[in-house]
Amino acid sequence: MFVSENLNINEKGNLTINGADTTVLAQKYGTPLYVMDEDMIRNNCRTYIKSIEKYYDGRGMVCFASKAFSCKEIYRIMQQENIGIDVVSAGEIYTAYKAGFDMSKAVFHGNNKSAEEVNMALDTGVGRIVADNIYEIEMLDRIAGERKISIPVLLRIKPGVDAHTHSFISTGQIDSKFGFALETGEAFEAVKKVLSCNNLEFRGLHCHIGSSILDTRGFVAAAEIMMTLISKIKDELNYEVKELNLGGGFGIRYVQSDDPLPYDEYMNAVAEVVNKYCAENNINRPFIIIEPGRSIVGSAGITLYTVGGRKTIPDIRTYISVDGGMCDNPRYILYQAEYDAIVANKASEPKSERVTIAGRCCETGDMIGENMPLQHCEPGDIIAVCATGAYNYSMSSNYNRLCKPAVVFVNSGSDRLAVRRQTLDDIISNDI
Asked: Residue 359 and residue 156: Cα distance in Å, rounded?
């Protein structure tokens, strides 16, 4: 019935998330409101850790791709669950550090790191830095020399795999701003360059083929390509790669037609490739790192809105306006992302109409979705949009000078505020 197993209907006919009545949450905290299921997040973390133990004898690390959802509370949870993190900016580094996260378990990514960000990463104790281009290799070597230290470095490799996702979120093919290409020999030359640097420790390789991937073929192909490169490095450079970061990109169910595999099946398919290749080619299995983000938090989140205007254009469509939109969920306007929605205070009723849920921003394309099945709703009703835990809060903006929503965590029916709602004073706080 629901796209996520943490949703249900209580005796009042209202939608619940992990036992909490969504209409009560909307009344208590206001809307728009992000609601995150802490129990589901923790369970997803534990599933990935078990897969590392099962398929790699525990010789690996799960890193939460924090670009999916970054705030102090999520880093505290990752710390408690013994999960590492993937960070891509000074802001993410600073937030994790201030939350008390053990930064030795942080991996610093990005295609255009500044010297200031690199120094912040080193000051806060970030454990690994992934170099994306030759300029970064040279910059890292220079900074390490100035600080008289050695920096552990991985190289981001483009495996040339088409992940069959939206072109904006496919990152493994040759035509990408990320990483070193294999086809041109660039990747192998980058390995040689790092090995020649006096102040860098070549730790290993990283790849990431895209996002929202719903089958194993792309991951298997990427693993085969990366293991072949590892073998080439050993044979031709006499260097055994210590770590292999296989990235993330595991998909979730946004609508009923999505059919993601259990995460364990992704892990099993890739582990078979890695373990078999190592055994057949006399290679020590590298320390395996994976970077799930969306699959840890995506299904754990919903967004609550209050219905405002209802506008029916005969023989065209019905618009249902809500008090949020692209400012708190830009994924429709960016990717034409699909979502499931429910009228939270009428959750037990059938979805009797198809509507376009329109946002309040002054943009024609500001929508949550078009032609969406929904219960009949009127002004004042509460709409829940499902599976918004990833890339919604993270990508939110103050467009039209709208305030960013609050974030609430739910744990076995109890709720607590994790991020307060912005105020109008917050909006103008940096204005001179």
From this structure: 38
User: CA torsion, points 318, 321, 325, 331, in degrees to nearest 10?
Assistant: -20
CA angle 193-195-201, nearest 5°? 120
Measuring CA to CA, how many Å separate 118 from each of 206, 244, 306, 407, 423?
A: 18, 22, 43, 30, 33
In this structure, the strands spanning 341-343 and 287-290 are unpaired
pLDDT digits (tens, 9 = 90+) for 191-227: 999 999 999 999 999 998 888 888 888 888 889 999 9
Those residues whose C-beta lies under 8 Å from the C-beta of residue 432, and which sit 6 or more positions away, are none
Give the integer Cα–Cα distance in Å for 69 and 328.
13
Strands (E), 298-395: 301-313, 317-322, 341-343, 353-358, 367-374, 382-386
Length of the chain: 432
Helices 115-124 and 134-147: crossing angle in degrees, nearest 10, is: 50
**pLDDT tens by residue, 163-190:** 554 444 344 455 567 779 888 889 999 9
| pLDDT tens digits for range 117-156 | 999 999 999 999 999 999 999 999 999 999 999 999 999 9
Of 27-41, 71-85, 203-217, least confident by mean pLDDT is 203-217
Token output for 331:
């994924």
Collapsed DSSP state (helix, strand, coil) of residue 293: coil
Taking the complete model, does pTM exceed 0.85, yes or no?
A: yes
Active-site position among 45, 327, 362, 386? 362
Peptide bond into 32 cis (omega under 30): yes
> Percent of the chain having pLDDT more than 70?
96
Q: Is 362 a catalytic residue?
A: yes
Tokens coding 31: 């809307």
